[in-house]
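agent> Task received from the user: take the single chain below, predict its 3D structure, and emit structure tokens. No templates, no multimer pairing.
agent> Plan: (1) validate residues, (2) run structure prediction, (3) serialize to tokens, (4) report one or two observations.
agent> Step 1 OK, no nonstandard residues flagged.
tool_call: predict_structure(input=
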Amino acid sequence: MGSDIGSMDRRRTSPRKTWLLLVAILAAVLAISLRVGGEPEVEITSDLPGIGPRTLVTVVAREPRRGPRRVKVELVQGEKATALADRESAVAPPWKLWSRSAAAQSVEVAVGSAVTEGLVAGEALIRVSVWRARTWLRDPAPVVRELALPVRLAPPSLELLSSQHYPVQGGSEAVVYRIGEGVVRHGVEAGATFFRGYALPAGSPGENFALFAVPYDLAEEATVHLVAVDDVGNRTERAFVDRLRSINSRHDSIEVGDAFMERVVPEIEAQTPSLDGGGSLVERYVAINSLLRVENRQAIADLAAQSVQRFLWQGTFLPLPNGQVMARFADRRTYLYQGQEIDRQDHLGYDLASVKRSPVPSANSGVVVMAQYLGIYGNVIVIDHGYGLMSLYGHLSSFDVAVGDEVERGQTIGHTGETGLAGGDHLHFGIFLQGVATDPVEWLDADWIRNRVLAKLERKGQGTG
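)
tool_result: status=success, residues=465
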């Protein structure tokens, strides 16, 4: 009897459980069918403050539930909309109720006069439409965000003010010019090398000048020109060199002996942690003469960022007193060991020899920005003379100044020596413009300074102090 009653109860309750289960299933199906993605977050940025020749616009769309399904980017001017990108991506399935997708879709597009047809000056909208994940019951409208950007297509004005520019390859000079509003980068380009310009002291608004060098190894097809670029990338170039004279380099062969290498290689390695000291003596020497040479020149070029924006020098630059010229700027050197070529390098300065441990004067007034051991140069001092102009003194035996010292023209800063790759006691003297080696002999010539620099800066005999 009791067993029959229990069976009857189970038969009465089973339909109820079944209905409850069906309701739960239907509710789950309905929830899944309605589970679209959340409202997307949209970020629009540009690499420039406006649109010029080429502006990169980056769009990042995020949706934490299922990820963005589609991102469309348009450029809108007036009634015209130009499609820039339309990307679709896979989204998380709706039945993964507990998923938290970190999916984001990133789109980068270029817009500007160089890549966008029909662009006109004025203003433009970057319009971004983002669709979230949908279901068969719901397909929400896209979220739309916009970024307004000015469109500026006119190149900046650039007017040449100075005249008679006759630089020599490996030499330097000055140029004076006027720029218009909105220019953020201006100066001289010599091939791939850029020499920044500065506001002309005591000049009118917009008047600037640049001290520039023509690299000694500038390719024949390269050009030298003024350049001005505004904040949205519009660019103006202007040729200004009346005549560019080629450099006449000497060619030397230098026999490298074991005694020399045994003296200089261990010393340089001990002072240079980046050298591993591996290989034969010849291999170690070649690594110093070539690879370390490049590193040392880069260290000198990096000093250009410290140069003060005022003239610290006045008058002609001084050479080493009674110095005999042992090597000149841009000498092409072939290095031999036991009669066989092991390396080729160019000498970018003047080697001057006098008596041993001769006092070395500062070529002109300035501020010491380097006083240390530096690879091939050994003990070296670098003096900043302002506006990217620096002088270098290498192979010294001792220092009489330290970094940060202000020095006067002719003041003793150290003594000659044979540190680094020096074959004997002498001074390696170099001149650099914004990190580029230039022929020092020009800066020792009063007529050259007057005609090629001061006259153009309209300082005419007043000096630069």
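agent> Step 4: summary for the user.
The first strand starts at residue 41 and ends at 46.
agent> Done.
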